[in-house]
Amino acid sequence: MWEISKLALSSLLQHKLRAFLTTLGITIGVFTVASVTAIIEGLNSSFEDQISLMGSDVFYVSRFSWFGSYDDWKDALKRPHIYPEAASYIQEHAYEVGAASPYLERNATLKRDERSVEYVEVAGVNQHMSYIEGTNVIEGRFFTAADNSHRKNVVVIGEDIRKEFFPGSSPLNHFILINGHRFRVIGLFEKKGSMLGHSMDNRVQIPFQTHIKYFSGRHQDATIAVKARDPNRLNAALDEVRSIMRLYRGLRPQEKDDFDINQMSSLLDLYHQLTAMLWAVAIGIGSISLVVGGIGVMNIMLVTVTERTREIGIRKSLGATRRKILWQFLVESMVVCAAGVLIGLGLASLATWAINAYTPLAARIPANWGVLATGTVIVIGMIFGLWPASRAARLDPIEALRY
Fold this sequence. Notes:
The protein is α+β, with helices and mostly antiparallel strands. About 55% of the residues lie in helices and about 20% in strands. The chain contains 14 helices and twelve strands.
């Protein structure tokens, strides 16, 4: 085997340009598939990490489904509103629930002195929300039940807001304006980064009663964020909250739910569907390149068989069997494919490094690259090298010696 491999390599080195052009199609195909795979793996890993940071044991009771159709959305418009009081009802009656909080949301303009930031997410929540979403307050404190019941003008800000208004200094006990209303900063959230290009730090949270007073009013629709008491009993918590919400909203057994329960896992499933489409496109493009490269390998092997006809005749006359001749040229075909695969993987590794170093995207080399590379070499080498190899094996030694 080693001698045959060395013979194949020496044959490649004797015709460097021809070998390069032969392996180019395979190199492009492997590079395309490997690079896209690395990007998808990196994005999937990053997205899953961000989802886990937001809480895999957290779900949201809402009037609308996150991923419903247009008809579902129109039907949901007819449903009665969900008000913040539903969070307290769930908290009091659900054994499987660790905490629940209303979530009222509005975009607003924040100002401090001459600086301002537009389209900042202002969320009205209760004292449990920091625990529910698993976000630490690294400076100051989160607000209390008393802050909420007394409708105090206190705010906990994200890192983007701190950088804009308080660069290089502590924001605590300073004041900012939210749509013209004066709020005292009592806490700073830890940095969370971005998800799908959206900054998770361009936000502030205030007591939901204060949010009702200034921004949303008593009758705005609320989402209820719920955290399961035990992550391993998430399904039990989901079923319990569904039953409690049906009771709270006075639904009869035969009536459908007039609310939806949304989970982050649904968002993750949708994301995987989208990346699966990208993966399918990459496989299609890569497969075309590999087929073109395989045809190139077959052509070069046919030329090699013709050029080495006399050598084949000599080997047969010295006792080489058809099987040995066949195996020799199959190995040579796989060596040519291996060269293309290794170059493609090397370029993909370089691209992975460059993506991580110079772009906001994440890329990660999958653990199965070695298996895929080996499989590609064997499959392409065997399929497109079989005809030239069998042609060499069938040569008549007498006719070959006359060539």
